Amino acid sequence: MAEKLSSEQKEIIQEFIQECIDLLDHLEPTIIGFEEFTKQGPFLPTLESVPVMDEVFRLFHSVKGSAGFLNFSFMASTAHAAENLLDQIRKGQQPMTNEHVDLFCQTIDFMREVLGYVAANLNDRGMEEPARVLASQLQAEIGGGSSGGSVAGQAPAKAPAAVAEPVISVPDLAITPELVNAFLQEATEQLQEVEEGLLVWSKDSENKEVVAELFRKIHSFKGNCGFLGFRDLERLSHRMETVLDAMKSGIAPANAKPADALLNLCDVLKNSLADISQKGQGQIDGLDLYLELLADFIPGGQDNDSSVQTPRVGEILVDSGVITPETLFEALDIQKKPLGEVLVGMGAASLEQVDSALVEQEKFKGISGGEQAHPAASLKRPDIRVDLDKIDTLIDLIGEMVIAENMLIHSPDLAGLVLENFSKASQQMSKLVKELQEVAMTIRMIPVAGLFNRMTRLVHDLARKSGKKADLVLVGMETELDKTVIEKITDPLVHLIRNSMDHALENPEERLAAGKKETGIVRLAASHEEGEVWIRIDDDGRGLNREKILKKAKEKGLVQGDGSELSDKDVSALIFLPGFSTADKVTDVSGRGVGMDVVKQNLNQIDGKIDIDSKPGIGTKIVLRIPLTMAIIDGMLVRVGDVRYIIPILSIRESFRPAAKAITVSPEGQELVRVRDRLFPVLRLHRLHKITPASELLDEGILVLLENQGRNVCLFVDEILGQQQTVIKGLSEYIGKIGQVRCVSGCTILSDGEVCLILEVRGLTDIAEGAD
Amino acid sequence: MAEEKYREETEDDWADDNEDTQKDKYLTFHLAKEDYGIEIRFVTEIIGIQRITEVPDMPDFLKGVINLRGKVIPVMDVRSRFHMEAREYDERTCIIVVNINNTSIGLVVDKVQEVVDIPESQVEAAPEKARGKRSRFLQGMGKVNDEVKILLNVEQLLYEEELAQLEEIAPAA
């Protein structure tokens, strides 16, 4: 491949990388699942395990295929070797062992590495050495099974047919709906590209590069079709490939211009794909005719087997001598409109002629029967890729709409009016807006499942390396988080899991000695709590070493005295102090500090918080608390003096007007209120924010009991105004630069257009705690 | 409606604007007894005074935040920034919305006057004597006919403390 790649080629490579990464992400947990099989020693495939293996087999195969077309020979050869090995195992020619699983994991790692390399350099030439090592390892495992297996440095060689020709074994493979979907998506994209390429080519027939590219695309399309057993698609695309090959090598008949004919065939392929998406078999009516049509462009021709079924309008017109082939191709160039219309427009055929041709075509369709029940059904794609900016704009606009709607419905002009129709309409509107809001919020959200699955691999590797035994329990996989948030917490999660595995979990012997089960448990759970998403990483290991941490903290002067008055929680929190453990080691194994820095920093970037709680000998619990980014919360509107605030409803336990005798004042002046046998500190919002309240007397206002993580505070306000949907907006960055606002998490715009601050309950409880 | 239309028109004008047409143009406003000017390229719009929501724990000059068509922007009282005597807001009081480094901020001034051309040749450096605390905000003195406009450095006006801090750090490093 030439050093200089066109932008389209780069795009293909990028798509290839993306596709491969998706495949690898999807399959990594499956491969790890193999471990289950090999736990009891070498393993022979059983009825349940074969479909799983088939899935992995298909992965390797499709990676091999795609990599091969793009000339990433090292990647292809490795995939090929892995494929062969798995094939042998699958067929029961040799049992699967732990080593095999590791080898497959290594292959996956290697592929990721190559993909990274390819992304940077657009070729895989630098990967020769690792590829050779890995391939030879795989070859060694394959043993005598396949002498013809490829050696690194070559493009995938022809291996024994039984192994390398997956089409033959297709009936054995369970083709899942997901697989078909993935195929359809990819195939549609490929066809789209082919079509674009053909359009370029039809304008610039000297462009050999385009032809070569088209050839590759059609080839990979063919490969996919063949793999899934869509024979008709395969045959047709194979013929298209042959034509392109002939054009490429310049042996095609002179002045042949197959571009338009190929374009036409792309439509046929698309129809067939649409049929598959409707659960059809993708059969192509008139396949032979199409094959024949293309034979004209191939030197030497092909045997003709004409069983005409549904010829196209254009062909019929050509046949009946109304137009010449050239006119037809010309017309195809402007194929935006239905062909017939174009022909009429060009004056090449009269309206009547086209009509009669259409009637004739209908007849043919009638003959060919119900096979093509929905010929016009367009292929449905389950997803589209959208620019994140666009989504953000959409979400912003919807936020504005919520505010505007509030302003409209609560407009002061309407006060006191009885408007039956208006209130009906406005209710309807509110419902719609709310739904719209919910949908918009989900657009950016993706489940944490993908992220969690990756951790499975991490735990597996670390356990293998350290000789520990560990089970990773995943909970709340369906919990959704903003995409950028997921990206930000990936690294922290890796560090935390690594810590748990490296430091917290003990060796099997130690565990047994401590009366624990031999296999340690790391639990990764995601859930919605208090308007945040909590990600918990719990282990049942030895816990943090309080003494060591304290000693280090004292050395650094972070703790005065002997620190004995600090709770375990406080001590644990020390490890997150900046610079705490970077200089020295907290535990004897390795530095806990660097990783914790990353954790802290990344979480800060998304406004997240981290809590750690560790009990010696019992385990460590770490909670990452992540705010829902684009949040619309339910808020309670309260008033103090002439200032209004929003309190997140999720944090409110109750609100009440206190009786005078329920209030006690401590000697330090701290007011406490008794609520059913419990005393809570009172915080006067007007003092905190220096406002003149309606009344200073507690029994003339309202106390709102707030809770945050088991800590409570009673907030004193003048009155409660009501509940409302609140779109959270950040206070300007500028404000963050010139000062720190206490106890305010953001602001919102009220129905009268005024800005209103949102109280941060955590800050309030902290203050109350400090005042204790 | 009229306001809406006006805004559309001005926005159209903005699209045509380039650096050249904004050069040497200053928006002038009145504060206490003096006329001030800021470079027009920072100004996005001028709005009448509206209710300002106070933000606690802020320096005095930061009056609070306002809702500017769905965007929450902070508002600075220029009088109190210059430690001048506070004055009741009236119907002439305006908020000049400026945009610096993609941050919008409103500046409360006594009244907005006009846009004037002050070519570079007509701008004098701020007088040596005034290099006190206040002069940090000054870009120069602009002469228009026989009047003098005090030209403000908007960036300093907003970030004076921060910039000063940076300067302190720089020589030390």
Description:
The complex is a heterodimer of chains A (772) and B (173). Chain A has 26 helices and 18 strands. With 772 residues, chain A is an alpha+beta fold. In chain A, the strands form four sheets. Chain A has a six-stranded mixed sheet with strand order 10-14-15-13-12-11. Chain A has a five-stranded mixed sheet with strand order 2-4-5-7-6. In chain A, helix 3 (73-90) runs parallel beside helix 5 and helix 16 (388-409) packs antiparallel against helix 17. Mean pLDDT of chain A is 74; it is low at 144-173, 301-310, 366-378 and 582-592. With 173 residues, chain B is of the alpha+beta class. Chain B contains four helices and eleven strands, in the order ααβββββαββββββα. Chain B is globular, with a radius of gyration of 17 Å. Mean pLDDT of chain B is 79; it is low at 1-5 and 7-13. Chain B has one domain: CheA-289, Domain 4 (OB fold (Dihydrolipoamide Acetyltransferase, E2P)). At the A-B interface, helix 16, helix 25, strand 17 and strand 18 of A face strand 4, strand 5, strand 7 and helix 4 of B.
C-alpha termini separation of chain A: 73 Å
Order of helices and strands of chain B: HHEEEEEHEEEEEEH
Mean pLDDT of chain A: 74
The total count of helices of chain B amounts to: 4
What is Rg of chain A?
A: 34 Å
What's the CATH class of chain B, please? Mainly Beta
Total beta strands of chain B: 11
What is the topology, as strand order, of the major beta sheet of chain B? 8-1-2-11-10-9
Highest-level CATH class of the largest domain in chain A: Mainly Alpha
Q: Say how many strands of chain A there are.
A: 18
The CATH superfamily of the largest domain in chain A is identified as HPT domain
In CATH, the architecture of chain B is Beta Barrel
Beta-strand proportion of chain B: 35-45%
Helicity level of chain B = 10-25%
Radius of gyration of chain B: 17 Å
The portion of residues forming beta strands of chain A comes to 5-15%
CATH topology of the largest domain in chain A: Four Helix Bundle (Hemerythrin (Met), subunit A)
Uncertain parts of chain B: 1-5, 7-13
Per CATH, the superfamily of chain B is CheA-289, Domain 4
Structural class of chain A: alpha+beta
Could you say how many structural domains of chain A there are in total?
Answer: 5
